[in-house]
Design goal:
Layout: H1 2-31, H2 34-61, H3 67-81, H4 86-100, H5 105-129, H6 138-173, H7 178-200, H8 208-235, H9 239-242, H10 247-281, H11 290-306, H12 313-319, H13 325-337, E1 341-343, E2 349-351, H14 360-364, H15 383-398, H16 408-412
Antiparallel strand pairs: 1-2
Helix pairs in contact: 1-10, 2-4, 2-5, 2-6, 2-10, 3-4, 7-8, 8-10
């Protein structure tokens, strides 16, 4: 009986946690204006669809081993990206793709640039969701985008051409559950694609399990969206209103739904870090003590510099478990704007100033911070906190000139082996 009560209590706790997580994700989704972002990405995708497919199919066509697979790829893309009236859309796209071969060199370059612009737009949207203020450099963007456009189709084509056609297909032809296996294979492929997008596109380190969970949500919602969209289109005769142009608004509406699903999964993946910290802290670090938290962050980066390393957002959050992700990002943004810290292309942070030349006042002026008075009760959990409190007391009694003290001696008084927090 007691065991049953414990299990019920645990189940209720898990349900409450899922409810809080759902509320947190929805708030995250709305704050980032993802509905408007989905509409923008849908319109951009409509313009870039033909250039993107032309680049992918052009790369595949350059390799004869993928000739048979190319037709299957087209059928797969058309049936999954347009679950209703795909035959009519496929005819349009085939006509457009056939005319691509007659383009001149400037036209081909413009085609590739259009495809790259879609990927750039996707990166901007994901960086906003993951609260990243700084994007990749132009060189890194071009290299990454071109690698995705070239290596992606080749790797997928190799997997299908070398294994699926020679091994899986003969087995499925003799199996009455072949449609089920094909459906599961499509689901697994969608899950893999969404996971890689959530893991690689944001310009900050993303935990793989968070990307995996967010991708699972997008995959399930994507399948439900296809079923619901087909049912809706079957009962809504757009041809009566739009006539021969009915395919365009239908396709645009479908792209909007797809991006809503993708951005919702991305919001879940991005929210998991913040939500975990909220659950762990049960009360974020008070805003009135942000200056002390800022002092700690600089100290952690200084210690990492002594060891010849850098720190990621995840590592800084682990060092300051009472700080929330959004709060920490705000502090780092102030430090980066003041050129006290810098973020590299891998999304990790390092000190950009010599602490001998950086004063307590420079740190204070890096943002709009409250300067605590000695009467306030500050948490003293390490020697750094003691130095911070001592500095505030001396500033209060001797005047603001004490603010000009350099930071390096304050951190340098920490003895080796003592707590770095």
């Amino acid at each position: 009986m007691r065991k049953s009560i414990v299990l019920n209590a645990e189940m209720q706790a898990q349900l409450l946690r899922l409810k809080c997580l759902a509320r947190h994700v929805w708030q995250h989704f709305r704050e980032d204006r993802c509905f408007e972002e989905a509409a923008s990405l849908g319109y951009t995708s409509l313009l870039a669809m033909v250039p993107l497919l032309a680049v992918i199919f052009g790369i595949v066509a350059a390799f004869p081993v993928f000739a048979d697979w190319s037709a299957n790829l087209k059928s797969f893309i058309f049936s999954n990206f347009m679950p209703s009236a795909s035959e009519q859309l496929e005819n349009y796209l085939q006509t457009f793709l056939a005319s691509v071969s007659s383009l001149t060199l400037p036209g081909t370059v413009f085609l590739i640039i259009t495809a790259l612009l879609l990927m750039f737009r996707i990166e901007v949207a994901f960086n906003r969701i993951w609260r990243v203020d700084r994007s990749r450099t132009l060189t890194n963007r071009v290299v990454m985008y071109w690698a995705v456009l070239t290596l992606g189709p080749l790797l997928i084509g190799s997997a299908i051409a070398l294994s699926a056609q020679s091994f899986i297909n003969p087995i499925l032809e003799q199996n009455e559950f072949a449609p089920v296996w094909h459906r599961l294979g499509a689901l697994l492929l969608s899950w893999t694609v969404f996971t890689l997008i959530f893991y690689l596109v944001p310009h900050r380190p993303v935990m793989f399990r968070h990307a995996l969970v967010g991708a699972l949500l997008s995959t399930l919602l994507y399948e439900l969206a296809k079923l619901g969209f087909v049912a809706y289109i079957s009962n809504a005769n757009y041809a009566v209103i739009y006539g021969a142009l009915a395919t365009i608004p239908i396709f645009l509406f479908w792209l909007y739904l797809v991006w809503v699903v993708v951005l919702l999964g991305a919001s879940l993946a991005a929210s998991l870090t913040t939500y975990d910290d909220t659950e762990r802290a049960r009360g974020e670090w008070p805003e009135s003590r942000n200056f002390q938290l800022l002092f700690r962050v600089v100290g952690h980066l200084w210690h990492a510099q002594l060891e010849g390393g850098k720190l990621s957002d995840t590592q800084l959050l682990a060092m300051q478990p009472k700080a929330g992700d959004r709060q920490l990002q705000g502090l780092l943004h102030d430090l980066e704007t003041s050129r006290i810290v810098a973020r590299d292309d891998e999304g990790e942070w390092r000190l950009a100033r010599d602490l001998h030349e950086l004063s307590f006042a420079d740190l204070y002026r890096s943002g709009q911070y409250h300067l605590p008075v000695p009467s306030e009760e500050l948490p003293v959990e390490s020697p750094w906190d003691s130095e911070f409190a001592t500095a505030l007391t001396e500033i209060y009694h001797r005047g603001t000139k004490e603010l000009e003290r350099p930071l390096r001696p304050m951190y340098g008084k920490i003895n080796e082996g003592e707590s770095k927090e």
